[in-house]
Write a structure and sequence with these properties.
alpha+beta, 6-stranded mixed β-sheet
């Protein structure tokens, strides 16, 4: 495994930790300053302030207990792409209802100042509701 691939896997592990611990500051810090998050059923968040606010909104609403499986990481210079899936549970905090959670993800990373950061992140449901 190349050092770039190892660093990106470590970054994905830190991202998973941010989700597990509902840490909006950590999640936002893993992005480039102009990073873009395309959350499912929510507006696009661009830049550190919007990213932090988006993650706070999500973490105020749900608790995630998911793990990621990395399928592919492709590195080309200072740009990399990873495809993953995540599985686990989501708890809606207001109702304290827990359900199975499964998503597919695409991450685009940029390397700046020698460190990999998330530049773009999008996910969707692995299966349609009720499927």
């Amino acid at each position: 495994m190349s050092s770039d691939t190892r660093e990106i896997r470590e970054l994905l592990d830190r991202y998973a930790t941010a989700l597990q611990t509902a840490d909006a500051d950590l999640a936002a810090s893993l992005y480039t300053p102009d990073g873009v998050f395309y959350p499912y059923n929510l507006p696009t968040a661009t830049g550190t302030g919007e990213l932090r606010a988006a993650y706070r909104q999500i973490f105020d609403t749900i608790k995630l207990d998911v793990s990621f499986t990395v399928h592919e990481i492709t590195v080309s210079g200072d740009v990399a792409v990873a495809t993953t899936d995540s599985k686990g549970t989501v708890t809606v905090l207001a109702e304290q209802v827990t359900a199975e959670e499964a998503n597919r993800e695409v991450f685009v990373f940029f390397r700046a100042d020698g460190a990999w950061r998330i530049a773009r992140y999008m996910f969707n449901k692995a299966a349609a509701p009720g499927a």
